[in-house]
Amino acid sequence: MYRRILVAYDGSDHAKKAVAHALALAKAFGSSVCVITVAVDPSQASLDKAQKIASEAAEALKSQGVALEEVAVRSGTPATEILNYAEEKGVDLIVMGSRGLSALQRLVLGSVSQAVASRARVPVLIVR
Ligand code: ATP
Ligand code: MG
Ligand code: MG
User: Fold this and answer.
1) ipTM of this predicted complex?
2) Which atom of ligand 1 is found nearest the CA of 113?
3) Which of 34, 36, 87, 101 has the greatest CB tally within 10 Å of its CB?
4) pLDDT per position as a tens digit, 85-105
């Protein structure tokens, strides 16, 4: 059913869970997986940090034999970059965490997962 899955990964515990779900779905459906990490700004230091974070997810997927299609590092507004990349790759499912790296615990859903779930044209799996 899902040919190509996008997992949005910021290195948070929730995003780690999202990777585990993407992995299980990819195995079950024979999907290929793309990973995106959005850097906070376009500086080389931020991009390098984002690349390291993205590589964690990529390694976890590869070590389980999942077909890793692409690992993308972008800078900009996370939700916008995730949505644009999803369109660009023609993914049919986006998997992400309900919360991310923010220390604020008052909201049920983080702003990135809320914006992606509201605007995406494909199903979004929000992992708690
Ligand atoms: P907020 O950022 O709104 O203060 P938060 O950090 O708790 O709150 P989100 O940022 O919405 O919550 O994180 C939810 C999920 O969105 C993460 O688990 C991850 O899957 C994805 N995500 C968030 N930021 C990024 C990012 N920079 N790059 C890739 N994925 C991200
Ligand atoms: Mg966040
Ligand atoms: Mg934030």
Assistant:
1) 0.97
2) 11
3) 36
4) 999 999 999 999 999 999 777
